[in-house]
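Deviation from plan, reported transparently: magnesium ion complex.
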Amino acid sequence: MANRLDNEYDYLFKIVLIGDSGVGKSNILSRFTRNEFCLESKSTIGVEFATRTLQVEGKTVKAQIWDTAGQERYRAITSAYYRGAVGALLVYDITKRQTFENVLRWLHELRDHADSNIVIMMAGNKSDLNHLRSVADEDGRSLAEKEGLSFLETSALEASNIEKAFQTILSEIYHIISKKALAAQEAAGNLPGQGTAINISESSVDNKKVCLFVPLVASLSLSHRDPSMASLVESGWQTKNNTPAAQEKCITRLLLYHFCVNLPLMMVSYPVFTAMGMRSSFPLPSWKEVSAQILFYFIIEDFVFYWGHRILHSKWLYKNVHSVHHEYATPFGLTSEYAHPDKILFLGFATIVGPALTGPHLITLWLWMVLRVLETVEAHCGYHFPWSLSDFLPLYGGFC
Ligand code: GDP
Ligand code: MG
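Because the crystal trials were delayed, the predicted structure below was used instead.
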């Protein structure tokens, strides 16, 4: 391990661990970051990420490796988990065929939520259990080849190939970044009068001890877009769509959707609710009525949204409608409110269908809205609260 101070590094790369529950992700992480292994099977609670600093081609790279908190059992990993990740280790268990078959679903999830340029390594873990093997090495290799991924069989128990797996991911990320940055430098050199040239010469990189978070996309986009954006450090703070033009487009759409989708929805909700029997007068509803109705709203909302979302992910609808919703992986600043109308409509509809069916008291409706917003904030903020319902309820906050 590098003996430099922990905050002295040239690059910080976020890497996510994904794959079915029980394949050994948490042990791979503890093996790599602390050289520890634990035979007991306990699901990961509360760990967000662990880091390790190491050398990659003479540069000090800090790998920040994110582990799930067990949500993978319910396929309830939020997009915050993938945000900013430049690498992924997709793990399956060589003794459990099903975990290998699910690799494609995980890839789909990655392609949905993570940046499209993310570097992916597939790992067939528990290679020490060769006698129990149900996935041949060759099967793993050919799937990886077909999908364009790197591949290794690993064992967290025997510490075999763990180091190599991360080293491979990190070098691949580093190569892409340096190649693209070089291309950007050339592009800048070819365009006189475009402002400061990008200087990523060896010495400038070496001198840089600042926290440099480099989303892969940032440096990839450098070469094609505005070469005068100059320094690699600045580029580190760019995200996929963060150009002024993208901001403008995003905010225009945001306003458009607010006025043309949200507003009509808000305007029809009141007449619909009153027509369906909503009341705002005394007597107030009993707590039993309130809690039964709210429980019903949560269930029906989840049901409608789940199936709606499944339908949106069908081939045609995904390609023609829903992919637009994934256009902004990380809305930014003022645009953080951004959501595509299909989502607004589905969520809006799912949220009001319960109250519309039961005609609640206004107090119940308010309480429902408050709980609903709390659920959204909790599920999307990227933090794992000890009181999170996701610890108890399968599928809780499972989408987006
Ligand atoms: P996760 O759910 O993917 O995080 O999996 P864990 O890291 O919690 O591991 C699940 C179980 O598999 C635990 O009992 C581990 O001890 C075991 N395990 C993990 N890696 C290996 C490995 O390389 N070899 C063997 N034999 N067991 C492993
Ligand atoms: Mg785990």
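Residues 25-26, 43-44, 67 surround magnesium ion (ligand 2) (CB under 6 Å). We consider this an acceptable substitute for the interim report.
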